[in-house]
Design goal:
Length: about 50
């Protein structure tokens, strides 16, 4: 997931949780990590 985000540098990443009935703290941490990566890449690309 990280590789694809860095490779394509999307402005928005959408996760579909329609069929998810439970998410533990590791899953929430994974989402927060991806959120940080997208924001970091957006900030870095605005500097260049």
């Amino acid at each position: 997931m990280d590789y694809e985000i860095e490779r394509h540098m999307p402005k928005k990443v959408i996760f579909n949780f329609d069929s998810v009935s439970f998410m533990d703290s590791a899953g929430i941490g994974l989402l927060l990590g991806r959120y940080k990566i997208v924001n970091m890449l957006r900030w870095r690309s605005s500097i260049n």
